[in-house]
């Protein structure tokens, strides 16, 4: 069995070679010659999987080690009888931690407490729901917008987008990219929405570039210097708008989901789906793959305030480490993808063991996702 895997998929060779011969290939573009005899194809978001790619090929299964699936023509795969699996939720924690790092940075720069701000979350799925939970644990009020879940009768409470825009100090997008249909998200943040943002609002897009109309955003930023903007995703990628990058407060190369844990979960989820597909079901425990984290443990004295939380968060991941390199190389062809391919290891907050002598701090840090314990001071 020949299994093609994207070269940017940690642990893929190790896992998939249990079931066949593995060939690692670049994802943008996939070398046509390698596809010829392939039985399975494991991709990331940069590979468009459709009839043009696979129509005349022998591939019987496609896996994408990603949460988003807008790069996959699922209708074609179903028509062609090709098995398919994505990796829902694999990197949701990473995106939440990216958003927190960005908010803590802006809060320090502009001198505000997150607890004095209302955060609107648009798209309350794997990312949005985890973000809500952690923000509320920290005492931040959230407003939720998720029309598909609202129409399904699920508990929110869910609000209309217009209400969220009118009331939220921060609006953060975590929807799939739907180009059409009843829940279309293409240019959900259009010029009208952007102009309606509250004074001094913060806009965050860490889902898909075209959910925010980037040309409109650039125009609006030309007229509104009160807004702060965090963009991890761009319209288009990899050839993002350089003038827009100059205007945004934080700009990164579509890496919000790039913790080692998030990527490894993506690989294990599609591997498990593939193993089921071929009738050789296998399960993989993540901790058998991951190396020990860079920072083992730390002691925290006293209660937890925002400045201390920021220091802890940024011990594990500080979004500035991804903003600066993008600004340096964005104008050079190929560098957006190179930054992503040669991504420096990043871990989740759970990799940091925090020993607290304040019980409240320990409980709060646990709720926020750190590996925290309480030990009374002697
Ligand atoms: N920047 C990055 O590295 C990453 C980006 N993503 C992107 O973020 C998206 C969200 O990720 P997850 O939360 O894991 O996906 P998910 O599928 O678990 O959640 C998406 C939520 O959006 C809601 N939704 C759909 N249409 C909507 C609309 N018109 N308005 C408001 N809400 C709507 C859905 O009902 C669902 O609850 C993914 O589809 C992917 O495109 C995901 C992971 C990493
Ligand atoms: O999971 C998703 O959806 C994402 O956006 C991924 O984090 C993007 O990473 P690549 O698949 O482009 O490496």
UniProtKB/TrEMBL annotation:
HAMAP family for the chain: PdxB
EC number: 1.1.1.290
Binding site for NAD(+): 146, 175, 232, 257
Function: Catalyzes the oxidation of erythronate-4-phosphate to 3-hydroxy-2-oxo-4-phosphonooxybutanoate.
Entry keywords, A to Z: Cytoplasm, NAD, Oxidoreductase, Pyridoxine biosynthesis
NAD is among the record's keywords: yes
Organism: Paramixta manurensis
Protein name stated in the entry: Erythronate-4-phosphate dehydrogenase
Gene Ontology molecular functions: 4-phosphoerythronate dehydrogenase activity; NAD binding; protein dimerization activity
Residue intervals of the D-isomer specific 2-hydroxyacid dehydrogenase NAD-binding domain: 109-255
């Amino acid at each position: 069995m020949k299994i093609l895997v994207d070269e940017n998929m940690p642990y893929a060779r190790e896992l998939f070679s249990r079931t066949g011969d593995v060939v690692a290939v670049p994802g943008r573009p996939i070398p046509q010659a390698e596809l010829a005899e392939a039985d399975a194809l494991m991709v990331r978001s940069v590979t468009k999987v459709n009839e043009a790619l696979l129509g005349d090929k022998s591939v019987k299964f496609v896996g994408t080690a990603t949460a988003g699936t807008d790069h996959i023509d699922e209708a074609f795969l179903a028509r062609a009888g090709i098995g398919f699996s994505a990796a829902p939720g694999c990197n949701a924690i990473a995106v939440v931690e990216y958003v927190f790092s960005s908010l803590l940075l802006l809060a320090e720069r502009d001198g505000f407490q997150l607890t004095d701000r209302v955060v609107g979350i648009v798209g309350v799925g794997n990312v949005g729901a985890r973000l809500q939970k952690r923000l509320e644990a920290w005492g931040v009020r959230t407003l939720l917008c998720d029309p598909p879940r609202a129409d399904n009768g699920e508990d929110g409470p869910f609000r209309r987008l217009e209400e969220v825009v009118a009331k939220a100090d921060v609006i953060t997008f975590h929807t799939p990219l739907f180009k059409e249909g009843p829940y279309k998200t293409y240019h959900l943040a259009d010029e009208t929405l952007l102009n309606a943002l509250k004074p001094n609002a913060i806009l965050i897009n860490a889902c898909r570039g075209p959910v925010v109309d980037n040309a409109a955003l650039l125009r609006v930023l030309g007229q509104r210097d009160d807004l702060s903007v965090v963009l991890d995703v761009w319209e288009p990628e990899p050839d993002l708008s350089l003038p827009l990058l100059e205007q945004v407060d934080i700009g990164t190369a579509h890496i919000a989901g790039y913790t080692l844990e998030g990527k490894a979960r993506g690989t294990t989820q599609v591997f498990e789906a593939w193993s089921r597909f071929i009738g050789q079901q296998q399960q993989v425990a993540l901790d058998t793959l991951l190396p020990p984290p860079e920072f083992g443990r730390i002691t925290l004295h006293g209660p937890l305030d925002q400045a201390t939380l920021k220091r802890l968060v940024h011990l594990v991941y500080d979004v500035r480490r991804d903003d600066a390199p993008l600004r340096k190389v964005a104008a050079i062809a190929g560098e957006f993808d190179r930054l992503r391919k040669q991504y420096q290891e990043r871990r989740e907050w759970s990799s940091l063991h925090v020993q607290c002598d304040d019980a409240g701090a320990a409980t709060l840090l646990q709720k926020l996702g750190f590996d925290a314990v309480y030990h009374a001071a002697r």
